Amino acid sequence: MSRHDEGRFAGVGGLELFWQRWRPAGEPRLVVALVHGVGEHSGRYMNLVGPLVADGFAVYAFDHRGHGRSPGPRVHIDTWDDYHGDLDAFLGLVAQHEPGRKIVLYGHSMGSLVVLDYLLARGRGREREQEHGPGRGPQAGGPQGGDELAGVIVSGVPLEPVGIGKPYQAALAKVLSKVTPRLTLDLGIAGDSLTRDPAALEAARTDPQLTSRATVRWGAESLATVQRVSREMAAVDLPLLVLHGGDDPLNRPAGAQALFDAVSSADKTLRIYPGVRHEPHNDIGHEQVAADVKEWLAHLL
């Protein structure tokens, strides 16, 4: 019988972030560390969690600061580095609970952007150590909690967001974030942009922890990160699975294709699901998505 636990861990600045895990009855074959998207929370992935745990995989997840059951101003960050530090602390927690086990990072939408930029920051940290020596140079070493990573899965990656991301928008967001950083704006995320599944739509409509609003500082930091990841994504070299809805109205599938084409990973797989919208794991046909994820994870063992 599987087991569910939850608790708190200290993120950047000591902020107590909510985390939870689902573990199979026996010893896990591998561990998936899940990083959710903007305006949502870690409890919205049960169409993945259930099949993965049933197949012997453990799943750990946490709520970003300002999201779900974690404290902080709603969908706000002072700097994108806060996401790096929180994820690093989370991976440290996972490694502590699962010593010696392979860990795969799974990021959806904004979570995929956090994951990709985290990996690139680790690479930049290693380069600085080689140049300056251990413990020297700016931000020497970079994030450390993900040293056990065996692979990465990204879903709904926002490298070509629809309707935002133009240079003038990034410039405007940067100005506003300095003047009034906690001003909130509606991101315009309609329920039917996420999924065609009526049950999932109703669950999202009645979920009090979901929001489509974010602060202008969050927006400025996100747009800057999209640009940074787009410039540097060729440096990603871990085994990679890219998932994307073919009819995603929020982030174009072309961004997923560009990522797949650019990365240095020798082991990489792209799955674009025809007709599927922004959340493949919550759309009609999510059973196939879970099956594809399980098959890909198994090849890492």
How does this model look, in words?
The protein is α/β, with parallel strands linked by helices. It has one domain: Alpha/Beta hydrolase fold, catalytic domain (Rossmann fold), CATH 3.40.50.1820. Helices cover 37% and strands 19% of the residues. It has an 8-stranded mixed beta sheet with strand order 1-2-4-3-5-6-9-10, with helices on both faces. Strands 7-8 form a two-stranded antiparallel sheet. It is globular, with a radius of gyration of 18 Å. It starts with a strand and ends with a helix.
List keywords for this structure.
eight-stranded mixed beta sheet; Rossmann fold; globular; 10 strands; 37% helix; 8 helices; two-stranded antiparallel ribbon; alpha/beta; single chain; 301 residues
Form type: globular
CATH superfamily: Alpha/Beta hydrolase fold, catalytic domain
Low-confidence stretches: 136-143
Q: Please give the largest β-sheet.
A: 8 strands, mixed
CATH architecture label name = 3-Layer(aba) Sandwich
Helix and strand composition category: alpha/beta
* Mean pLDDT value: 90
**Rg (CA only):** 18 Å
Count of individual beta strands: 10
* Name of the CATH class: Alpha Beta
**Strand ordering within the main sheet:** 1-2-4-3-5-6-9-10
Order of helices and strands: EEEHEHEHEHEHEHEHEH
User: How many structural domains?
Assistant: 1
Kindly report how far apart the N and C termini lie.
Answer: 23 Å
Q: What is the share of helical residues?
A: 25-40%
Strand content: 15-25%
What topology emerges from the helices and strands here?
Elements: E1 3-10, E2 16-23, E3 31-35, H1 46-54, E4 58-62, H2 81-97, E5 103-108, H3 110-132, E6 149-155, H4 167-179, E7 184-186, H5 198-205, E8 213-215, H6 216-232, E9 240-245, H7 253-262, E10 268-273, H8 286-298
Parallel strand pairs: 3-4, 3-5, 5-6, 6-9, 9-10
Antiparallel strand pairs: 1-2, 2-4, 7-8
Helix pairs in contact: 1-8, 2-3, 3-6, 4-6
